[in-house]
Amino acid sequence: MRRREPSLFGRLLGALARVALLLLLVLLAAVAFFPFERIAPALGARIERETRVATTIGGLGAHWTWRGPELEATGIALRWPTGETLALDDVRVRAARPSAWLRGVPCAHVTAHATFGSFSGVISREVFRGDFERFDFAQLPAAWFGEGGSPLAGAVDAQVDLERVAQQWSGGVTVAGDEGSLALPGAPVAIPYEKLSAAARLDEVGTLHLDSLALAGPMVAARAKGRIVAGYAGPATGAIAIQAEIERMDPALLPALSEYGVVLDPDGAGRLTISGTPERIEIH
In whole angstroms, what is the distance from residue 225 CA to residue 242 CA? Predict the structure, then answer.
């Protein structure tokens, strides 16, 4: 029986498959044997030139994943000109959203781990989307949050989905945590909690919508919602309009709170209206 010759299309596919396999083997070899450790100091110096943040990278390497090559840096130390420092155990970066790269907008998938928590998500000039796990914002440099430091202390999980359009960021954030404390602006003391949940949205004009906030702990149980509009200093820096419902409060706190204009029922329950601005908060 005469052997049937493969078609031109079949021969072309076979040739392309062999070329693709060869390119894959070359790429795997490059990833496996490239001397990444030699370029770690140069990469740290480049980051410092671009960001003015002194950067030390302990180790640098690459791995091949099913989504493509991934660069890994370990033992990272960052120091800002103002003196703040930050240490990261490891950071992994790979290309994400090929369509964004084709439009000239680099987009990276980033995974980072540190003693204060971890992050995994997509970051670019237009997108910040991802998950924070067991993240303690109080362990970040206090100067990043203003004079009072971080309002949250204790590990939380958070989901962030922000997008920038016409130089304005918008999107949503959800937060859930346990065993921590919350320092509200203008409050005399930080409030310890056993459970915390919150959901907020930043709209296209810079107004922050607090869709829900629930706090439960040994001293207080409360819920709140409202908004903070944009001000002269940017998003969520203008007028505050928040309604809070206090379900329970430790009676021992009532005398101290009354000095700040907070009047509740003898059993520690009541409704509050929070107004003013972040610089000058008023409670009614």
Answer: 6
Measured distance CA(5)–CA(12) in Å, rounded: 13
**Cα three-residue angle 123-70-60, rounded to 5 degrees:** 105
Neighbouring CB atoms inside 10 A of 127's CB total 20
> What DSSP designation does 115 have?
T
Q: Using the structure block, give the residue that is written with the tokens 């310890």.
A: 192
Residues in the chain: 284
Q: CB of 78 within 8 A of CB of 53?
A: yes
Burial (CB count <10 Å: 0-12, 13-18, 19+), residue 180: buried
167 φ/ψ sector (left φ>0, alpha ψ -120 to 50, else beta): left
Residues 150-169 have pLDDT tens digits of: 888 999 999 999 998 888 89
Does the pTM surpass 0.85? The reply is no
3-state helix, strand, coil in the chain (%, to 5): 20, 50, 30
Among 240, 155, 168, residue whose Cα is nearest residue 204:
168
- Secondary structure (3-state) at 80: coil
Judge contact between 216 and 182, C-beta under 8 A: no
